[in-house]
Amino acid sequence: MAVLLWIVLLSAGVSLSRAQESFSKLPDIYKRGVELTLHQINAHDSIMNHYLFFKSIHQAEIEAGFDVKFIYHNFYLKATECERGMENADATTCAFRNDRPRVDCVICYKISEGEINNKPKPYLNCMHRRLLSKESKREREIGCFRVGFGHLTPTPVASTGS
Description:
It is found in: Secreted. By secondary structure, the chain is of the alpha+beta class.
């Protein structure tokens, strides 16, 4: 029994460190979007647990010139054992909950000189993965279109399977 418990704890630790490692390996321009998303999600009154970045699904960027880029990032968040509002929460202090579904997020924004611009306002859409439909995916496309992806063709920079 102790061996089984040790294996479970060890595998949970590997999962936590991989999630933290994947966030730390994101380029800064994508980290900023994830951080903005986490701030919005974790500040929401209906959220009981703290959420953390789990995995990137797709990234794209458009070079618009003059150090301006349009960023598209689709990624998963996952609830942790920590309560919402916990300061300095990360994957080493807050274990992911496996009894909660992943949250699928898309964020599109304009970034210049390394900072997210407020004009146009960043588009953010997050929902439980199992609730994604063709209609909700279309709404995401429209939201990103409004931010600046509509008149340009994004160049994928990284893509991973779900």
